[in-house]
Amino acid sequence: MSDTSTRLGWPATPTPAEEAIIEPSAALPARLRLMSFNIQAGIQTRYYHQYFTRGWRHVLPDSKRVPNLRRIASLIRDFDLVGLQELDGGSLRSGFVDQTAFLADTAEFPHWYSQTNRPLGRFAQHSNGLLSRLSARSVTEHRLPGRIPGRGALIVRFGTEEAELMVVLLHLALSQRARLTQLAYVAECIGSCEHVIVMGDLNCHSRSPELQYLCAETGLREPFHDLPTYPSWRPEKNIDHILVSPSLSVEAAQVLDAPLSDHLPMTMAVNLPASLCGR
Fold first, then answer.
1. Are the C-beta atoms of residues 196 and 224 closer than 8 Å to each other?
2. CATH assignment at residue 259
3. Does 170 reside within a domain?
4. How many domains does the chain fold into?
């Protein structure tokens, strides 16, 4: 743990949730710039055939990985909250670089929160991470249900108990049945929280039964539908999402033309209600 960052990253265990209480959060700003980005462990993919011809990069070190991570850092530095999926927490394939910490340091984010969902020892540390300009009040790691383990939810709370913003970072399963089960769990975690942001690679499109279920259960909304993010070289599928509560006013949402992974980054600018900002 460095002087300017906070790390929370536990290996997946049978425990459904683990929580850490951080220093009290400062007052929230009136406007937040959000990004959700699946970075594919820092691997830049331009064509389908590279999944096979360059598949070794998922298990072995690659000299092009760190320069690409620096390009990603340059892209994300103008945002306030950045939810990242498919990072490596420091293993052979990443040259034992904790990619969440590296990106936070390079892009000058003072706070970062990391969750390792599938620890494979020295060979891979599959992780998600949230980079933040704001200090969180608490961070909770949840192990999501599913027949194949290794999916998680990172729930980060900002503000006070009386005026709270909940941010949920997800990377959901590939099967629809598992996604429905996982989103039922997430909906239960959100409960009656009034101000919520859910972001991540949800592996389903805007009008899918899974997202319709989550929105019906929680009141969340996706202001702009059908913004494709995958594959980055010819985006056709909108599987990366940012959903928000009705209390958050959305200025704009945009997919950035930044093919630094096999996904494109999803971005959104939101205005927070006065009750969250002390106004």
1. no
2. 3.60.10.10
3. yes
4. 1
Q: Tokens 């949730």 appear where?
A: 17
Report the percent of the chain where pLDDT is more than 90: 73
Tell me the two tokens of residue 46. 């331009």
Taking only the tens place, the pLDDT of each residue in 238-260 is: 999 999 999 999 999 999 999 99
pLDDT tens digits, one per residue of 107-129: 999 999 999 998 888 888 989 99
Tokens at 195, concatenated: 């101000």
